[in-house]
Amino acid sequence: MDETPRTPPRFSATFTPHVLAEIRRAAATGIYDIRGAGAKRHLPHFDDLLFLGASISRYPLEGYRERCGTGVVLGARHAKRPIELKIPITIAGMSFGSLSAQAKEALGRGASIAGTSTTTGDGGMTNEEREHSQTLVYQVLPSRYDMNPDDLRRADAIEVVIGQGAKPGGGGMLLGQKVSERVAGMRNLPAGIDQRSASRHPDWTGPDDLQIKLQELREITDWQKPIYVKVGASRPYYDTALAVKAGADVVVIDGMQGGTAATQDVFIENVGIPTLAAIRPAVRALEELGMYRKVQLIISGGIRSGADVAKALALGADAVSIGTAALVALGDNDPAHEAAYQKLGTTAGAYDDWHEGRDPAGITTQDPVLAARLDPVLAGRRLANYLAVMTLEAQTIARACGKSHLHALEPEDLVALTIESAAMAGVKLAGTDWIPGQGQL
Amino acid sequence: MTQRAFARVVDLEQASVRDLNQALHDLGSDSNATHWQVINPRGRHALAVGLDAEVTVEIDGHAGYYCAGMNKRANVIVRGNVGVGAAENMMSGFVHVHGDASQAAGATARGGMLLIDGNAAARCGISLKGGDIVVKGSVGHMSAFMAQAGTLVVLGDAGDSLGDSIYEAHLYVRGTVAGLGADCIEKPLADRHRAELHARLQQAGLAGQVDIGSFRRYGSARDLYHFHVDHADAY
Q: Which DSSP helix (H) or strand (E) runs through B201?
């Protein structure tokens, strides 16, 4: 032995290379990091749950013979014209402004082929979006950009947005480089300047006011449209109860894995709770109020596959909503653009500077040259394909659990791989009869 | 209350708010029912909301939240006070409140005029997007917060943090201003602003009654139009 053994370089588990790089970046620039997408940290998620499947005591359905329903009706509590969707997977609200017109059109096309809804965003409704969306949900946001009664009336449903999972309690900012003449015109602001989206609604405060606000929206639309209330997951039990009390037809809860167009990284990673932790408290609130299945629950934030859909529904959701996954289906972060991503200092799969408007895929941009790269017809077809696969996957699992409809899935069909996920989902730890956290709220 | 001739009268002790709004929504472009009178409103919410017709609606008494919300084209007169969010997100038309207005009067209004004879509480004209508001009394704190376009004319005083984070709206105040919000500054009252102010006052039926020279103008310093770390103290 010629050399004395040496201790190899050891990185800190606290001061990881990523943490060190962020400290250096902050020291050099004096400003926090802003990015798109949702929480990237590891979180208890649907991956931590497994279905039990049929056995001697459970009888499965034939996979290619027996029907497994997927339809869902949203908004029958108060609305004269509830929404009927073929599949329980909807497209989440994303704004024209953060997304190109082509991307919005593609979302509408894909959702319509699949028989589901898409949603406007913090920038109003475009004609392309309305024209190509069979079922369109119109968001009423704190900024009220392009808010108008005509679009309220030509929408199929209304979603009052209190918050989103990536930033519960936070507003937003569309940086000037994405504020084209068209975007600015829709927002009643000069082109090229940063456009702040408020964190609070301008004309109501608290649940009692919200009830009156919903009444106004119903009166304006002659009680025709379902009204959703969307919150970022933080206090799902109380928010669900208050939304129901305010008169919501549908409650939408977005976990912290849900994406945003642009928010501080520190906000995305440290505010809110995981999607998995939000479902059961919301369902409990509905059950206690006698409103389970009467007021529908839509869950979003990190839904990626039919397995995720089935798990969310088994835990009590009526439907799920996807945003990031839908953008990926359109072409976001596709390795085909790797050379362009490298020029931006990133790589396919990690690109999240959606706020900068330089998206090589032409999705999160207002640059006409970049936006023209996205073929809305082709991208819409890709989204429809993806939605079809998710639905088939969810049906496959449901049949294996002996369910003739996705809504027949139940928590008893699931077990958890970790104590944390068992506690959050309220299901047994696999191989045990133990549900951690029961009796606690 | 004396009922005016030729008006369709809706007594909210007999009919519901739903009945009232549906009847107003059902008005065709050729309807002769162009004058409506609402009696016994008793502070009910969402009165005369979502109108889109050349019609006059007179509300004899106090109205609750969101009176004349999202109004288009209609002329809504309230012979009383109004609750939160009067004429919110108005697109066009004219809303005249004879009494006082609660918070967020004219919030996000994109067109039309809101005239308030009395005072308006906090956040009057919040996120204003092109509408015009004239308040003959005073306005509360945080009025014209994040106001983007349009005008707010105040014949009385303005509360604290007027025009906080304002964009391109024009603010005219005749009385005292308790304090200006972030990025809001006093600006010269140039001839074109005098003309604009005169036009608004004329529209409100106040031309000649008020000395335009007694107003001071406030607007955006435009220092916060692009986020910069050096301005962090302002946020």
A: helix B191-203
Contact B102, B78 (CB under 8 A): no
Residues in chain B whose beta carbon is closer than 8 A to a beta carbon of chain A? 17-18, 21-22, 25, 45-46, 49-50, 52, 64-66, 69-70, 72, 84-85, 88-89, 91, 103-104, 107-108, 110, 123, 126-127, 129-130, 145-146, 148-149, 165, 167-168, 225-227, 229
In a domain, B227, yes or no: yes
Question: pLDDT tens, B70-89?
Answer: 999 999 999 999 999 999 99
Tokens of A209: 């006011």
Residue B155 lies in a domain: yes
Query: Is B1 contained in some domain?
Result: no
- Tell me which residue range forms the domain holding B208: 8-234
Q: With CB atoms and an 8 Å threshold, state whether B46 touches A216.
A: yes
| CB-CB contact of B21 with B50 (8 Å) | yes
- Cα–Cα distance, A119 to A138 (Å, whole number): 6
Rama region for A419: left / alpha / beta (φ>0; ψ in -120 to 50; rest): alpha
- ipTM reported for the complex, 2 dp: 0.95
> HSE of A180 in the Cβ direction (CA atoms, 13 Å)?
17
CA distance A95 to A180: 14
- Confirm whether B92 is domain-assigned: yes
Domain with residue B75: its CATH number is: 2.160.20.60
> Chain centroid to CA B209: how far?
20
Instruction: Give the 3-state secondary structure percentages of chain B, helix then strand then coil, rounded to 5.
Output: 15, 25, 60
What's the number of CA atoms in the CB half-sphere (13 Å) around residue B26? 7
Is a pLDDT exceeding 70 seen at residue B2? Answer: no
What's the predicted TM-score (pTM) here? 0.95
Residue A317's closest CA among A352, A286, A349?
Answer: A286
The dihedral through the CA atoms of B220, B210, B77, B111 has a sign that is: negative
Q: Look at residue A277 in the predicted model and tell me its pLDDT.
A: 98
Does the pLDDT of residue B67 top 90, yes or no?
yes
Looking at the 3D structure of chain B, how many domains does it have?
1
Query: Mean pLDDT over all residues of chain A?
Result: 95
Q: Read off the tokens for A86.
A: 């073929």
CA distance A373 to A183: 19
Strands B56-60 and B75-78: parallel
Least confident of A27-36, B75-84, B112-121, B167-176: A27-36
Q: Enumerate domains of chain A plus CATH numbers.
A: 47-331+374-407 (3.20.20.70)
